[in-house]
UniProtKB/TrEMBL annotation:
PROSITE patterns: FIDO. Residues 8-129 form the Fido domain. This is Death on curing protein, Doc toxin. It comes from the Bacteria.
Amino acid sequence: MIEEPKGLSSKAIRSIQDILIARTGGIAGILNPTLLESTIDKPKFFFQYEPESSIFKLAAAYGYGFLKNHCFCDGNKRMDLAAVSTFLRKNDYLLTASEVEAASFFLDLAGAIETYEDGFERLTDWIEKHAIKLERED
């Protein structure tokens, strides 16, 4: 069992979305508040009911949720990668994939015709392959 991770708050997610839209364009706003809260709560659910969940699975819960739930009016594919990266960073991991490689993977994942389980597992595996643990300086 891992130590309880530092999750992403609704406020943090909305701030990330605002920054993404300001930098890259698009329509600002939340399309579905219920799906947004569900996506934010999913990693907490996994940790509570599946305490053996890896940090990579918890990160994938954010990423896959934003990818498939379309919580925002625009920028959902950008949000999934940003949420994964931010969550990992808050928990002392770094996503090492290049921006091009990550964008290519997430675009492929978004367009794939596969079951939820297969897509989620593929994302979890990709994150595990492309994340490294950072050494803490205490």
